[in-house]
Amino acid sequence: NRMSHSTSFRSQSTKIYFQSLRSLNMLTLKFVNLLQEAEGGILDLKDAVRILAVGQKRRIYDITNVLEGIGLIMKISKRRVKWMGTMPGENTHELTTRLKELAAELDDLEQKELMLDQQRLWVEQSIRNTIEDCSKYLFHTCLNLEHIDFQQFPLYAFYKQVAIKYCRAA
């Protein structure tokens, strides 16, 4: 008799446990759907509690902690989260392909930036060399600075600033 009571209690608690898991699973699915349907994937947790009619706010926070831990959401503020996963109807393969394309484009842009930085350094060095080579003519150049048509140079504003700066320093 005692054995049947223990077995009955265990099967009852197992049943409650699985119902609870099923309930949490359903709540999680509803929460994710709510996130995916939210404008920009951003959801106020207070609204989620109200819309999903959750008795315990803690359950929503438990769900958000797990989703944040696996990278599906990001906390924007204390009460707001942003969905980082795929949206309904999106193909994860397409997103992966697009992500790879964007990464390749970023690498290409970084290479171009490095090349432009190097060219800028060369131009700056060329200007320094020219100024140094022509330093004996600096006084004459400064006197006639207003007669120079800087617009003939592609970077005329830059050259004019450099010339004025060096003339003031002289």
3D architecture notes:
It is a single chain. With 170 residues, this protein is mainly α. It has two domains: 2-83, Orthogonal Bundle (Arc Repressor Mutant, subunit A); 92-169. The protein contains six helices and three strands; from the N terminus they run αβααββααα. The protein has helices at residues 2-37, 45-51, 57-69, 92-133, 138-143, 156-169; strands at residues 42-44, 73-75, 80-83. The chain has a three-stranded antiparallel sheet with strand order 1-3-2. The N and C termini lie far apart (108 Å). The model has no long low-confidence stretch (mean pLDDT 75).
Helix-strand blueprint:
Elements: H1 2-37, E1 42-44, H2 45-51, H3 57-69, E2 73-75, E3 80-83, H4 92-133, H5 138-143, H6 156-169
Globular, elongated, flat, extended or rod-shaped: what is the shape? elongated
For the record, give the distance between the C-alpha atoms at the N and C termini, rounded to a whole number: 108 Å
Total E-strand runs: 3
Low-pLDDT stretches are none
Keywords: Coiled coil, DNA-binding, Nucleus, Transcription, Transcription regulation
GO molecular function: DNA-binding transcription factor activity, RNA polymerase II-specific; RNA polymerase II cis-regulatory region sequence-specific DNA binding
Family: Belongs to the E2F/DP family.
Organism: Echeneis naucrates
